[in-house]
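quick q for whoever's on today - can somebody do inverse folding on this one?? i tried earlier but teh output was garbage lol. tokens:
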């Protein structure tokens, strides 16, 4: 149970992220989650959108270098210690976390995390065995209704 994330290289300059977002807006692509990591010359924006296959084609047509990656999204309780519990489950089961970011949804008392690991199947298994439910793309769409 994974979610498709689009990673895009952006030039590190004023307005680059706005231009990127405007392209998606014009084509009616809805952003669900966004993370931006930067270096001196470029940044990598990672997004989850309502229709990743359409979005990646739109971005490629506009000249962006981008790719789709399968990541895991989970819903955890919105309370102190919930994130630590999830991270300990992964660490205790030798699942290395490569990166992570949070997103907001219209569901009270829940927090949502996206993360990339080397072994999605293993991470999904150990999280599920420990009562943390990964969510799929369709589940994410329900969160935004």
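ok took a stab at it. sequence:
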């Amino acid at each position: 149970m994974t979610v498709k994330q689009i990673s895009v290289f952006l030039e590190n300059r004023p307005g680059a992220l706005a231009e990127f977002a405007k392209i998606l807006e014009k084509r009616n692509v809805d952003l669900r989650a966004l993370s931006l990591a930067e270096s001196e010359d470029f940044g990598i924006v990672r997004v989850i959108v309502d229709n990743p296959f359409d979005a990646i084609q739109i971005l490629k047509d506009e000249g962006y270098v981008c790719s789709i990656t399968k990541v895991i999204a989970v819903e955890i309780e919105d309370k102190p210690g919930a994130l630590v519990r999830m991270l300990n489950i992964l660490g205790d089961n030798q699942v290395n976390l490569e990166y992570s970011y949070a997103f907001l949804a219209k569901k009270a008392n829940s927090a949502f995390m996206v993360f990339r690991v080397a072994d999605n199947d293993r991470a999904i298994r150990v999280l599920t065995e420990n009562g943390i439910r990964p969510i799929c793309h369709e589940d994410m769409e329900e969160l935004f209704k």
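fwiw The chain has two domains: 3-69, 72-143. also The first strand starts at residue 3 and ends at 11. so keep that in mind when u check it
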